[in-house]
Amino acid sequence: MPNYVGALDQGTTSNRFIIFDHSGNIVGLDQKEHEQIFPRPGWVEHDPIEIWQNTRDVIQGALASTGLTGSDLAAVGITNQRETTVIWDKNTGKPFGNAVVWQCTRTDEICRDLMRAEGQNRFRDKTGLPIATYFSGPKIKWILDNVAAARRAADKGDALFGTMETWVIWWLTGGPHGGSHVTDVTNASRTMLMDLQTLQWDADILQILDIPPQILPRIVPSCDRDTWGTSLKDGPLGAAISVCGALGDQQAALVGQTCFDMGEAKNTYGTGCFLLLNTGTTPTVSRQGLLTTLGYQINDQAPVYCLEGSIAITGALVQWLRDNLGLISSAPEIEDLARTVDDNGGAYFVPAFSGLFAPYWRSDARGVIVGLTRYVNKGHIARAVLEACAYQTRDIVNAMNKDSGVELSRLKVDGGMVANEVLMQFQSDILNVPVIRPQVSETTALGAAYAAGLAVGFWSGLDELRQNWAEDKTWQPAMAAALRDKYYREWKKAVDRTFDWVE
Predict the structure, then answer these.
(1) Helices 378-404 & 421-431, crossing angle to 10 degrees?
(2) Is 28 helix (H, G, I), strand (E, B) or coil?
(3) pLDDT for 100-121, tens place per residue?
(4) How confident is the model over 439-486, as pLDDT tens digits?
(5) Measured torsion, CA atoms of residues 410, 412, 418, 423, in degrees rounded to the nearest 10
(6) What is d(CA 60, CA 465) in angstroms, rounded to the nearest whole number?
């Protein structure tokens, strides 16, 4: 068997292809950013054609940089930005417009109409999700209602819907010439269209949203020994390689962090922030504003469920500070700027740019900076930006503790922002628990590699994956309880100021 597994990480801001060895170490990678398109306030789009071309480029770039060929890979897994929605012509592969990104709020009116009859939790018992602009179902409806060509093609059976792993898998395995149209259970669980118990599309919800079932992909396990197809020999891999693993990005990080036991949790700091708690093979209904979602499914085994807290804006706030305000010229500079001050100077930044996700679910909220005085300088603003990530995480942890009945005792972390030690120490302080960073911080791509590798027998099972995990650094809480309580109380006041901005 070949000695490596490849993983495509189709993220919100970039595509990366990473090659892993049997020990879970990175052998090579390539990365390419794609354009963020903002046609109107609150609207966010990506060009799916650009994403597919970038996918081709990074696969070829990673192979070239290592001197490997596609034939050196045992399998390929995909992880992706979840909820981002594209509909395309199955005969040509041409999309009916740009992909509607998970952050986009254009479906607010659709969601309000859906809630009018039975409230925000109308579909929660079946799907585990509140009605919100976040999820794919309303985005599908918006495209079909507003793009006449898409509706015509959908009704004729010529249109296909997918989140981004579906789009990439379809192209990798043949595209218009027999490409496999599938979505794994984790991504399907983010559409607001799948029944958590049956793992099938729900006919009643499809009818309510006026979504033709023929456009939907087949739902498959995250790790599937019945591979969905092989890559084309004339494609970017240059060989027929099994495509057999897929996970939404946050579930991929859960697998990459080897959180396979009930009660284990991880937090990923990326464009947004996402905390997942493994709740075992029975879904746990949230009463605290969290999401009930699929964690992963290995072949035909029972699916594993999670509670999830989703935060829309964390790393994206650092990008905003860089790109919109010009206070820093590169993202890592925020740590140096934050170190120029001892605290936030009384300033709090709540980045409700596209409303607030868990545990509030307020699409009417918009971002605020509060507590400003003439004392506050750019160092304080930088620190407030970093602290916003930690405070939002505490909001999630508090809700998770109440839902699960178990107090979080430690937090495994991953994602680009875990290199920021100011943030990691403050996260530990404000949660009052140890924060643990693994040696391999690319846990999202690693989880996708694990899913694909398990499917073809590259790894023997979960115990072997656990042996690959190793700690890099742990931060211990060092903040006085009274100060922690004061800071968090002021944060909650700041959150209150964001509500009711959009009427």
Answers:
(1) 40
(2) strand
(3) 999 899 999 999 999 998 898 8
(4) 887 889 999 999 999 999 999 999 999 998 889 999 999 999 999 999
(5) -20
(6) 27
